[in-house]
Amino acid sequence: MSHRNLVSIDDCSKDDILRILNSAVKFEEKPNRALLKGKVVATLFFEPSTRTRLSFETAVNRLDGRVVGFQDPSTTSSAKGETLKDTILMVSNYADVIIMRHYLEGAARYASEVTDVPVVNAGDGANQHPTQTLLDLYSIRKTQKNNLDNLTITMVGDLKYGRTVHSLIVGMSHFSPTFHFVAPEELRMPDEQKQFCDMHGISYEEHTAFTEDVINRSDILYMTRVQRERFTDLMEYERVKNVYILHNRMLEKSRPNLHVLHPLPRVNEIAYDVDDNPKAYYIQQARNGLYAREAVLCDVLGINTGKSNS
What we know:
By secondary structure, the protein is an alpha/beta fold.
């Protein structure tokens, strides 16, 4: 990865990933540091967001930077017909970094090609969500005694449109994982991601049943919601929206090191009785987004974050 953009986790080498994760450790130790003093960060959210936008804006504020931008494109000139190119070029006049979420796949890549200002992809359609992947990797490593190697990761739910699982496959490919893909036929993992696994010698199994046997063979259980906004056929959405629900009793015989992750928001796929289980990690996972995104912002700007105290 260059020190200019984070568009796709594909652009990150293993060394890039470990550098950012190690930097995130430093920010967890000390999140408030004036490393972005005098910097302006633009947050352009063409698609709704809560955790990603707030964690990025919190990261900027804790690093003593300033935030400009929008979360409702209907209030911007794009509603008047302004092109994405012109929006990016205009914002580039004001900001040192652009963080962008867009509903079109490839929008972040395009933005990075029309400006010299660093672009961070905060999610582009069903394509990629690289900062989510980095916070997921950080969370996985924390729950697995500082280890990412040779883990079995079970992904459940919307594997067709879920950009978080697509990115996580790429991010974990450096660490010899084994995957279980649990999805209904309508939402099964796309061939592109399975071909990626084949090319990189990554073992995986596909399942349509969400069983305790699969859970009990897992180190990480990565739940996802069925994303209503990705469906053009609402009847199809109604058929699959509640197909898999994790209940607390299903974790009774799981491995001691198993932890449950979820990129959030949750709808019905994790029952509330799971929340008090010590293996539930999705709230802590969201908190880790602050540290990972502080690390990303400094990384794209080439800012030295100093040595960790660990």
